[in-house]
Design goal:
Oligomer: single chain
Helix content: 40-55%
Strand order of the largest sheet: 3-4-5-2-1-8-9
Strand content: 5-15%
Number of helices: 23
Cofactor: Mg(2+)
Structural class: alpha+beta
InterPro entries: HD/PDEase_dom, HD_domain, NT_sf, PolA_pol_head_dom, PolyA_RNA-bd, tRNA_CCA-adding_enzyme
Family: Belongs to the tRNA nucleotidyltransferase/poly(A) polymerase family.
Radius of gyration: 27 Å
Shape: globular
Largest sheet: 7 strands, mixed
Keywords: ATP-binding, Magnesium, Metal-binding, Nucleotide-binding, Nucleotidyltransferase, RNA repair, RNA-binding, Transferase, tRNA processing
Number of strands: 13
Organism: Thalassobacterium sedimentorum
């Protein structure tokens, strides 16, 4: 099977057309990077990168402009984008560091650079393979194909050290493609730190780990091998934190979290936002254990209230990666409540408790996924499956709150209809009414209006 066979037809045809146009103009266009790697692995490629040799930026633009809609925002760096096709076209570039920050680089396009020299600036050998779409020739100056077949992650050159983000790239590549890092690559990674990396770049690599990793545990263990847990102390604290063997035969919290993440990865639903929220909740769900774990008088290991006390620790971890308020609002309640499905099931909880839980976590189906991953992180899995999760999903389906919090029935307009003027008391009345709704005091608008009249009389 050709590498081109793993590229969608519109992109494949466009890539071939680009290569032919640029060949006629005196240049050579090669597919490079992830699309080549994925093609060799038989994985459909989404983003196509093309590197052009023998032509300067003016010549590339002049040749392609009559045939494609070009985005030329990156033209100063020799980069063009074919609009609507997810194809990036770039000249090979020379990069030289001018300072410690990730932006401290001088970048110059060099159309006369050889494919071997251009490949030397890439991070890993598996990403340094090029492919000529016109001839089918594979250019592999750093033996990336051999490493790919051996499931080996190896850096291309010492230039790897110029961008410490490559350590996190290695983390997510290992998790996605089941790779094992070469000892010399681990040794080089140990010399690097994320000190000058902005959180936006960190976030993108952690996102890929959570959304694309198949063996997330393996990626995290690479981070540990590279001595990078010191930069994520909330994770470092999990390593060596003991758990009660009766309930956790798999070992410490670090090991448990890895198993949970692999279980989550096996059951992703394909909705990027939902998977992101659930994945980070699974990663953070036991952050409270290191500070709460102790051995009782009977020799049993306990971690009381680790779910609740882990919330601020999870928040600190997430603050290293993102400023997205929505992430905090939707991940942290799942961390806090991840033990509730089992507790409610054992107690035979009623509708009120379930409504309140739905109001807290926004989506019960998310919480069930987190709790399910938590249970799957404790091998061997019980033969009875996951009855508490199915019970909770069935109950919330009956209440129509499986994938949303209960919507308030009483709103401000209902107060206005009773002649109540807006003011600070509005919020207090509506909050109290919502609490009553969660308790089942009313279930439709007619009942709600009757309740509101009594409540207003009582308060005012």
């Amino acid at each position: 099977m050709s590498i081109l066979d793993n590229i969608a037809k519109p992109q494949r045809e466009a890539a071939l057309k680009v290569a032919e146009i640029l060949r006629q103009a005196g240049g050579r266009a090669l597919l490079v990077g992830g699309c080549v790697r994925d093609g060799l692995l038989g994985i459909p490629a989404k983003d196509i990168d093309i590197e052009v040799y023998g032509l300067d930026a003016d010549a590339v633009e002049a040749a392609l402009k009559p045939h494609f809609r070009l985005d030329t925002v990156g033209r100063a760096f020799g980069v063009f984008i074919l609009k609507g096709l997810d194809i990036d076209i770039a000249l090979p570039r020379r990069e030289s560091r001018t300072g410690p920050k990730h932006t401290d680089f001088k970048v110059e396009g060099d159309p006369h650079m050889s494919p071997r020299e251009a490949a030397s600036r890439r991070d890993f050998t598996i990403n340094a393979i090029s492919y000529d779409p016109l001839t089918g020739e594979q250019l592999d100056p750093y033996n990336g194909i051999t490493d790919l077949k051996a499931n080996c992650l190896r850096h291309v050159s010492e230039a790897f050290s110029e961008d410490p983000l490559r350590v996190l790239r290695g983390m997510q590549f290992i998790a996605r493609f089941d790779l094992t890092a070469a000892p010399e690559t681990i040794a080089l990674c140990r010399q690097l730190s994320p000190e000058h990396l902005p959180m936006e770049r960190l976030w993108e690599e952690w996102k890929k780990l959570i959304l694309k990793g198949q063996q997330i545990r393996k990626g995290l263990n690479f981070l540990k091998d590279c001595d990078w847990l010191q930069y994520f102390p909330e994770l470092a604290a999990l390593d060596g934190c003991e758990q009660e063997p009766q309930w956790h035969p798999e070992g410490d919290v670090w090991t448990h979290t890895g198993h949970c993440l692999d279980a989550y990865a096996a059951h992703r639903i394909g909705d990027e936002w939902e998977d992101l929220v659930v994945g980070f909740a699974v990663l953070c769900h036991d952050f409270g254990k290191p500070d709460t774990t102790y051995t009782d008088d009977n020799g049993r290991i306990r971690s009381p209230r680790h779910d609740v006390l882990g919330v601020p620790i999870a928040k600190t971890f997430l603050e290293r990666l993102t400023r997205q308020k929505k992430i905090f609002e939707e991940v942290l309640p799942l961390v806090e409540q991840h033990m509730r499905p089992l507790a409610l099931y054992r107690d035979g909880a009623g509708d009120s408790a379930i409504r309140r839980l739905a109001a807290r976590v926004k989506r019960i189906d998310r919480l069930v996924r987190v709790a399910h991953a938590d249970k799957n992180g404790r091998p061997p899995i019980e033969s009875d499956g996951y009855p508490e999760g199915q019970w909770l999903l069935d109950k919330t389906a009956e209440l129509a709150i499986q994938d949303n919090a209960p919507k308030p029935i009483l709103l401000g307009r209902h107060l206005l209809e009773l002649g109540i003027k807006p003011g600070p008391h509005f919020g207090k009345i509506l909050d109290r009414a919502y609490e009553a709704q969660l308790d089942g005091a009313f279930t439709d608008e007619e009942q709600a209006r009757d309740y509101l009249k009594k409540l207003v009389t009582e308060i005012l």
